Amino acid sequence: MRDSFVRALTELAAEDPDIVLITGDLGFGALNDFIARYPRNFINAGVAEQNMTALACGMALTGARAYTYSIGNFPTLRCLEQLRNDVCYHDANVTVVAVGAGFSYGQLGMSHFATEDLAILRALPGMRVVAPSDPWQAYELTRQLHAQGGPAYLRIDKGSAGIAPGPVELGKVRQVRDGDDLVIFATGGILSEVMAAAEAVAERGISVRVIDVHTLKPLDADGICAAARDSGRVITVEEHVVTGGLGGAVAEACLEGGVAITAFRRIGLDGGYPEIVGDQAYLRAHFGMDREAIAAAIGKILGL
Amino acid sequence: MNAIDLTLGTDALALRLRRHVVRMCGSGGSSHVGSCLSMADIIAVLYGKVLRLDPTDPRWPERDRFILSKGHAGACIYAALAERGFFPVTDLERHYRNGSNLSGHVSSKNVPGVELSTGSLGHGLGVGAGMAMRLRATGGKQRVYVVMSDGECDEGSNWEAILFAAHHRLSNLCVVVDYNKLQSLAPISETLGLEPFADKWRAFGWNLITVDGHDHAALQRGFANAAATSDRPTCLLADTVKGRGVTFMENQVLWHYRAPEGEEYTAALAELG
After folding, report:
1. CB burial class (10 A; 0-12, 13-18, 19+) of residue A277?
2. What residues of chain A lie within 8 A of the CB of B119, using their CB?
3. Which of A62, A165, A291, B97 has CA atoms 20 to 30 A from the CA of B75?
4. pLDDT score recorded for residue A109
């Protein structure tokens, strides 16, 4: 997914000479092609995320299309006030790219778990929040974000859903499986676990609708309500804390949209900071957000 | 008052800025009058002599960029912009009032001539460095000026930007530090000492010029030196007196937060003629 973003940005740089990619001393190997082709459009700001973000704002306010690039929480939480006061308040053309969504860097420890970013970034007025589920989507949504301009956050996952490429539109949910018994909304690469769970319960005659919410903001409230209205039974899945992220966003949309919800369950990280490490699959299972946990939640909601 | 005739010189402009900020802070009941008075001469020289601006076209692409990083002294910038004709001087009466665009901390929203909204310290220099980098990369002749407070240099983000600007030899970037040696609760020396302050900037690779921040000729020479320096960013470390111009406010921590009221207000304006 990371390489798909870099490929999209490298192609865009051929069309748009105002693109500037600023890294916070990360991206070893991944950015080589961009740097080789557009050395004058690349800056390594050093291990200094506050300054990286302020620089991006200053460059954007003088005509650049700035991208800040780092991993985990470094380009988001570390410099949150620069995003709020400098980038968002001034509606600066800055896209923040964070590689390592959720437990992507699962062995590296709690500092590298990006598990509160969606809730926090979504709260910033003017900030768009995008979490692709597959590499092809990261490519497409990078291009669409660039075409729109303005502050944006692109959350790059190590995992991917493995769904075949198709039309994707920024700000519109995407149905990837239809079903009658309940609907699952998911964001990011963990959609793979949702699809596997839906497939597993299908063998028991349970029909699950699955919706990919690649854009958390602006939220496609109408699309979410339309998807939830048929069954009224909703599960949300995110590799993120259950507070204020996808689950909260979907709940808000459904309630304000007058959808008669009969069952609602948020699956995500709940109950404190992880104190263990492991790969992404291991941590998903450990924290109850893998395919088995999702299948179990489906059964419970349906009273099976 | 109508906007000033610039041929009257920066001394006259500085005096008018001081009168404006005392009025604005007094009638609006706002803090930071001492911080405004401290930098009034620096701002008068910048807006009166140095900055290339066009009040009839605030977004003129060729303009110099000015950022007030010590956003709490916004009243002085609003006054300077009004005096330069960016908006009517009578608008200054709205400062700090309900529904006003003239916030206590400087804001660019609906205020022509303000480049960047600040108020949280440690933001202006990094943004200014980004502007300088971009303007240089696109062949522009514009210069970027950032006025910072001394207490603001406690913020680590500034030192990230100070490293960056020197590494990239951003000679089109000029910082002025309003070094009045008082921060909000106590003197700098008792809070988080900055000395040897000039040496720190030099050690980081900057062209460091110490200057009397109330001497207009010295400030102009400093800005000329900065403009003539082609291999490094410049910092004018401006030795100033907080509250300068109103004797009972000078060098008093009290006037970081206190708004002049009643007899204080009358006495301050009387001293400023």
Report:
1. middle
2. 85
3. A62
4. 96
Contact (CB, 8 A) for B86 and B54: no
- Cα separation, B136 vs B238, whole angstroms: 26
Taking the CA of residue A117 and the nearest CA in chain B, the distance in Å comes to 21
B157 vs A51, A56, A66: nearest CB = A51
Task: State the pLDDT at residue B195.
Answer: 98
**DSSP H or E segment with residue A121:** helix A117-122
Closest partner CB to A51 (pick from B137, B138, B161): B161
Structural domain span for residue B84: 6-271
The number of folded domains in chain B is 1
% of chain B surpassing 70 pLDDT: 97
Q: Model confidence over B227-254: pLDDT tens digits? A: 999 999 999 999 999 999 999 999 999 9
- Residues 6 or more apart from B196 whose CB is under 8 A from it? none
Average pLDDT of the segment spanning A221-225: 98
pLDDT score at B3: 61
CA angle B38, B43, B48 (to 5 degrees): 145
Taking the C-alpha atoms of residue A18 and residue B137, their distance in angstroms, rounded to an integer, is 10
Q: Please enumerate in sequence order all residues whose Cβ is within 8 A of that of A166, keeping only pairs 6 or more positions apart, or say none.
A: A174
Q: A2-156 and A174-301: same fold? A: yes
User: At A264, which helix (H) or strand (E)?
Assistant: strand A263-269
Arithmetic mean of pLDDT, B170-186: 97
Flag whether B204 is in a domain. yes
Q: Angle at CA A259, nearest 5°, toward A255 and A261?
A: 85
B58 prior amide bond cis, ω within 30 = no
- Do B133 and A81 make contact, defined as CB atoms within 8 angstroms? no
Confidence bin at B1 (pLDDT 50/70/90)? very low
Is the CATH number 3.40.50.970 carried by domain A2-156?
A: yes
**A174-301 belongs to CATH 3.40.50.920:** yes
In a domain, B1, yes or no: no
Look up the pTM and report it.
0.96
Distances (CA, A) of B139 to A69, A276, B231: 25, 52, 16
Q: Which of A59, A80, A81, A89 to mutate to test the interface with B (most CBs of B within 10 A)?
A: A59
Give me the CATH number covering residue B105.
3.40.50.970
Contact A54 B129 (CB under 8 A): yes
Q: Is A61 on the interface with B (CB under 8 A)?
A: yes
Is the pLDDT at A50 greater than 80? The verdict is yes
Which residue shows structure tokens 């620069």?
A82
Contact assessment for residue B228 and residue B57, using Cβ atoms and an 8 Å cutoff: no
Q: Is the pLDDT of residue B24 over 70?
A: yes
ipTM of the complex: 0.95
Identify the DSSP state of A155: E
